[in-house]
Automatic annotation (TrEMBL):
PROSITE patterns according to UniProt: ABC_TM1F, ABC_TRANSPORTER_1, ABC_TRANSPORTER_2
InterPro entries recorded: AAA+_ATPase, ABC1_TM_dom, ABC1_TM_sf, ABC_transporter-like_ATP-bd, ABC_transporter-like_CS, P-loop_NTPase, Type_1_exporter
Source organism of the structure: Lactobacillus johnsonii N6.2
CDD domains tied to this protein: ABC_6TM_Tm288_like (cd18547), ABCC_Glucan_exporter_like (cd03254)
Topological type in the membrane: Multi-pass membrane protein
Lineage of origin: Bacteria, Bacillati, Bacillota, Bacilli, Lactobacillales
One MF term in the entry's GO annotations: ATP binding
Entry's localization field: Cell membrane
Protein name: ABC transporter
Length: 618
């Protein structure tokens, strides 16, 4: 299994990711972002203005009342109404920005999911060969969720706290610079403690996120390989592996949460300490005349000191989630930045919908018309060399001349390079040197989609999609009529077993074939290829053994499928390729023998040994 690399994000990187994220939010809905920011400013300002108003309330309206014999409560009532108004604005703004950011986060999440999925579809096969599926999935689930959390909560609250802090500091200075400086000293002390805790907790949060990716990857791999695990009685090893990942995840989560949970009470109590000290020192300063402080100013200042410590605690807490989400965002952006498959081809191929089994090259004429030239299916490999990884060559000087309608079989031990040859033809990977032509046109000049569309591939691993049998066969040609589906199923010899199912063609099958047998799945995949009706076939013969009757049906289905088409059969059973027009024997990426079955037997070489059982294939 690919290990998920534990990455710590450098600061510069974080800023870049944040910038990109903000751009994403801004372009998703500029007006929502602008209104949210305005309401965040309003919310922060009204809380501070409300606290400052306490000074006026006490000094201008309450204190004079204490000295009046017949107190007039009218002005005080008005002032209380103003204060109510200020807090009401604060409340409304808070509500508005929370709601708006929630909606905005949903929109961003929707967009990111869409963009990432669309981009993923455009990635080359090499990306999926090199990356763990579970880890890719984790980007869709965990990372997008943390991103959403950040946009809807952490980021606006962080902004709100930061603005509150600035406003509070200005307000505190306006009341008493002496008390403000004193508050700073107390605060600097608590800040040191907070910093210590946040650095640790954010580190473990990142580790936790990585471990989560790893455990998802492991789960996915174990689920996919469940049957293999059972067959080899590898349950204890699988559990041991899982326990290891689970333990690491528990360790990281435990530490991350321990630091995060002690952070808040510490900050809360620092605030209480500051409160008591200010009440005491402010009172003493007012009584002794050390500072020009009124009762109202002290009350205001006390209120502000509470608002001073809270945002700092929140900022450090929100920073945790932001750092975590940025790591997630980076993983999503990495996926989005993976280069899409490049296609420089401009030669067009198109199927002729009216006539079965006929495809055309669209050749532009000088007068602007398009000339339709029938595709013959002549495939030539001309001195092809290839390596997946530089320096580790897999195919050596491959030469194949597959004339139209020819059945070419590839035989060789496992790992000899048979599948790689088919990967070259459909351009899942690009050849290093040499040339592959299709009716004389280098395949690098053909539009990739057209090229792949014109090659039908029946893979070793049959993959069916969730849906009815009808849907699955129609997958090969989405606009096929019901009759075409029945006909393809009949030719593939799948019709018989489909009729035996309770719901016939409407039987719903689960993603991985559900209750169907291996052979039945193969018959369906043959029917699927049959309906696609393409000029060239690549058949990666299934290795799994099926009962002889089904095997005969599969074989008959295959023969029908291959009739009249140029085909490449990757053979695992020699019995299926005896009738091939050309058999190529591969060994470690070299074609070591070539010819028909009879010719090869006469040569008494490698193929002869395989056929006579002196040598085994796998
Ligand atoms: N995506 C990949 N990246 C790197 N190396 C690969 C990749 N796919 C296959 N290989 C290597 O290329 C070589 C040829 O593999 P290939 O799948 O073509 O063999 P094969 O003859 O089809 O084997 P089998 O009969 O088992 O399917 C092997 O050594 C394999 O390890």
């Amino acid at each position: 299994m690919d290990q998920v690399k534990e990455k710590t994000q450098p600061k510069g990187n974080r800023i870049k990711v944040l910038g990109r994220l903000l751009k994403l939010v801004l372009t998703t809905s500029p007006w929502m972002l602008v209104v949210s920011i305005i309401t965040i400013i309003l919310a922060a300002a009204s809380a501070v203005i409300g606290s400052l108003f306490i000074e006026r309330l006490i000094d201008t309206y309450v204190t004079p009342l204490l000295h009046e014999k017949v107190p007039n409560y009218g002005p005080l009532l008005n002032a209380i109404l103003v204060m109510f108004g200020i807090y009401a604005i604060g409340f409304l703004s808070n509500y508005l920005f929370s709601m708006l950011m929630g909606v905005l986060a949903q929109k961003v999440q929707f967009r990111v999911r869409n963009e990432t999925f669309t981009h993923m579809e455009s990635l080359p096969i090499a990306y999926f060969d090199q990356n763990n599926y579970g880890d890719i999935m984790s980007r869709y689930t965990n990372d997008i969720d943390t991103l959403m959390q950040m946009i809807s909560q952490s980021l606006p609250q962080f902004l709100n706290s930061a603005l509150s802090l600035i406003f509070v500091i200005v307000a505190m200075f306006s009341l008493s610079w002496q008390l403000t400086l004193f508050s700073f000293i107390i605060f600097a002390l608590s800040f040191g403690i907070v910093r210590f805790l946040t650095v640790r907790s954010s580190h473990y949060f990142k580790v936790q996120q990585n471990k989560l990716g790893q455990i998802n990857g492991y789960d996915e791999e174990m689920l996919n390989g469940l049957k293999v695990i059972k067959v080899f009685s590898h349950e204890p090893e699988a559990e041991e592996g899982f326990d290891k990942f689970n333990e690491e995840l528990r360790g990281a989560s435990g530490k991350a949460n321990t630091y995060a949970t002690i952070l808040f009470p510490i900050m809360g109590n620092m605030g209480n300490l500051l409160y008591v000290l200010i009440a005491f020192i402010g009172g003493a300063a007012a009584i002794n005349g050390w500072a020009p402080l009124t009762l109202g100013a002290i009350a205001s200042f006390l209120q502000l000191s509470r608002q001073f410590s809270m945002p700092i605690a929140q900022i450090s807490q929100q920073l945790n989630s932001i750092v975590l989400a940025l790591a997630g965002a980076q993983r999503i952006f990495e996926l989005e930045d993976e280069p899409s498959e490049v296609d420089n081809g401009d030669v067009i191929m198109s199927p002729n919908k009216e006539v079965k089994n006929s495809w055309y090259w669209d050749v532009p004429e000088k007068n602007g018309d398009i000339k339709k030239v029938p595709i013959k299916g002549h495939i030539v490999f001309d001195h092809v060399n290839f390596s997946y990884v530089p320096g580790h060559q897999i195919l050596y000087d491959i030469n194949i001349d597959a004339k139209p309608g020819m059945k070419v079989a590839l035989v060789g031990e496992t790992g000899a390079g048979k599948t790689t040859i088919s990967n070259m033809l459909n351009r899942f990977y690009e050849i290093q040197s040499g040339k592959i032509t299709y009716d004389g046109v280098p395949i690098s000049q053909i539009r990739k989609n057209d090229l792949r569309h014109s090659l039908s591939i029946v893979l070793q691993e049959t993959h069916l999609f969730t849906g009815t049998i009808m849907d699955n066969i129609r997958f090969g040609k989405p606009d096929a009529s019901d009759d075409e589906v029945y006909q393809a199923a009949r030719l593939a010899h799948a019709d018989e077993f489909i009729h035996e199912l309770d719901d016939g063609y409407e039987t719903v099958i689960d993603g991985d074939g559900g209750d169907l047998s291996q052979g039945q799945m193969q018959l369906l995949s043959i029917a699927r290829a049959m309906i696609a009706d393409e000029p060239v076939m690549i058949l990666d013969e299934a290795t799994s053994s099926i009962d002889t009757r089904t095997e005969r049906m599969v074989q008959a289905g295959m023969d029908n499928l291959l009739a009249g088409r140029t085909s490449f059969v990757i053979a695992h059973r020699l019995s299926t390729i005896v009738n091939s027009d050309l058999i190529l024997v591969l060994d470690h990426g070299h074609i070591i023998e070539r010819g028909t079955h009879e010719e090869l037997l006469k040569q008494k070489g490698y193929y002869y040994e395989l056929y006579t059982g002196k040598k085994e294939l796998d």
